[in-house]
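Subject: Predicted fold for D-lactate dehydrogenase (cytochrome), 486 residues

User T.R. writes:
Posting the sequence so we have a shared reference for the thread.
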Amino acid sequence: MDAQISENLKTAFGDRATTDLFERGFYQRDLAPVPDFLVNPIADTLPDIVIRPQNTAEVAYIAKLAAEKEIPMTARAGGSTVYFNTVCTRKGILVDLNGLDQLVAVEQESNIVRVGAGMTWWQLERALNRIGLATCSYPSSAQAATVGGWLVMMGYGLGSLKYGPVVEQVISAQTVMPDGSVQELNAMSKPPVSWLAGSEGTLGIVTEIELRVRPQPETEWHGLAELEDARQMQRFIESAVLSAALPFNLHFSDPGCNALRHRLGLGSERAAKAYTVAFDADGSAAETAAAQKNYSKCLHITTAGDLGEEAEHEWQHRFFSLVLKREGPSLLGAEIWLPISSLAAYLHDIELFESKKNLGLKSYGHVVTAQHAMVMTMFNADERDTIGYLQGLALVKKLHDIGAKHGGCPYGVGLWNTPYVSRCHTAAELVELKQRKKLLDPNNIMNPGKVYQAPLLLNPALFSLGMDLLAATTLVYRGKIGGEQV
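User M.O. replies:
I've generated the structure tokens; pasting them so everyone works from the same file.
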């Protein structure tokens, strides 16, 4: 980027704009600890300048300049994914939206709020609770994920089973478009607000959202079912989602995950040997009573055990799934959007894969619709071990292959899942998505290098062949299980 443009931006934004190398370096990665030798041939992740706007007008000013000068522009807030969704691929301007974190307006009688897109979901939930309201749903990363970020990442998580994805709760979204104009997108606008869902910041930058919320629940209740195998667990889940008394959240874990939780002092020895389903309900006293009856019915139908004494503890730790990293030093894995009807078959094939590779695989997930779950399968890894980490990435590809075999696809694309984009979308859907991008951002300025197609070195055919060959080699590093090298 031209040095004079940088100086002009620093003059305009003062200490909220920086070209300091140390500060910019923090924006070169997200939660994924990907070694430089893999990143550098594919993306130029160091932004030329980082700017921290405080309102929509400032974001629009930056976007208009970027459009006029054809400077790549990437928006970022929580950075709580692992796919480089919010990491630059072509340098340029990095817009840090964490300053847009205000609760702008509350219409308490109609249960509607307007909130800055940089506010985290947990900040919003606590602010609403103080005035007798609550969000309808939030991500499992609510303590870091922002309101705007979750919308553009599709927005399925806790509460989605009962209330739907976040885009169905959004009334409108104030959005800075790629040309620098500001539009209030809603269901009837052109483009509609639904275009933002899953766009991952490639079609515009959301700055404020008008959102439906709900009265703060009067009561809550938590159950934890103990299942012998994945088939029994699937039957329990299928029974639970058929009832009108849907739980707020259904979270499941396999024995690998539960055994690790036990080693870390977070679960009982009994749970460590089982598949479990956390059944969390809230609402009025009548709603939670009905949900509790649904839970009891599911236990009876599937002859499942009850670990009710651990249910509250499980709920209190709902944001800490990645505490599993403590056995570390790091984790690799695949997050898969999977039909519930395929859950047992998927986990069966994961067990077979584990028997061959001995990785210490562990799986957990959330049921987010009556038909689908988001499943995370992961294993320990060490990014400092160059060859072993590269082999680990190849094994992640094999996990995605198992998911695809059972009708699943990656949840989220960003950069690292672009080799799987044809699994995420049909050919017709992909044509439509590319047309939207061309219509709204013809110069490909807004978060370039993401979502729509893989860069040359991640070409799906070459990537698949290379990863399959690498996965077939003898492992030189397989992480740590229970503190011992394997």
